[in-house]
Amino acid sequence: MIDFNTSFKKMKESTHMIHAIVSPLASNDLANVLLSLNQAPILAEYYREVYEVTQNSHALLINLGTLNQSKLMGIKEALISAKANDIPIILDPVGASATKVRLETSLYYLKKYPIKVLKGNYSEIYSIYYQKLSTNGVDAKNIDKDQMIKICRDLSTMYNTIVVASGKEDIISDGKETLLLKNGSPLLPKVTGTGCILGGIIAASYSFEKNLNAIALAISILNIGAELAQKDKGMATFKISLLDQISLIDSKTIEERIVYEKL
Predict the structure, then answer these.
(1) What pLDDT digit, counting tens, does each position of 114-159 carry?
(2) 119 among the known binding-site residues?
(3) Largest CB tally within 10 Å, which of 54, 151, 212, 248?
(4) Left if phi > 0, otherwise alpha if psi is -120 to 50, otherwise beta: which for 26?
(5) Which positions does UniProt annotate for substrate binding (predicted)?
(6) Is 167 annotated as a binding residue?
């Protein structure tokens, strides 16, 4: 059994600043989730200030949810700062399976900057590995799990990064060790921004302990929170309950409910 006590205690007792450049659709929920986990979110995008903001942060989350030229300028400055100041970078290549510009941008970042965690759904990770588009949208493609496990391992070695592939079962690999996490709720993909929220929790957890267990903790906070929030009511109730459960969750609950395999 993975021991989450130390990682969770660090996150609850100490505050790190997490710089997140994410979609405005998810920014409010992401910020509130990080605050509920005792972390300090900052969502700066203006290219003239992001170097300084990143320099003073403990982790940088880059999410390609909504793109425009101004945001790309800000992302570039943030990445330059993170590389120069040894700030861990978490990349969420949203839509890399759907459009050429997103795929090419993601590949460029992976090749040029020291991405510590690459987190995407199955189809996004699949597209980055094969360097070709695989969907007409951002939803995960129905890809064979065993094939996905191999892709995650190979990508991790290729780019010297931890790879997270989210789907019905979530895969984490650093090329040597691979975890398969099996918690979650079918309602999660129906709520806009849960992928962004996960990226933020990963950034926070990884800023304290730079290993697979920290990422497993982050994924479990969201997935087990979703299990606890799931009710026979509408999506708005689920979303509010999800935010509540994330704020209330503790390491004992995670260790009691987590379902996973070490591969």
Answers:
(1) 999 999 999 999 999 999 998 765 555 567 889 999 999 999 999 9
(2) yes
(3) 54
(4) alpha
(5) 193
(6) no
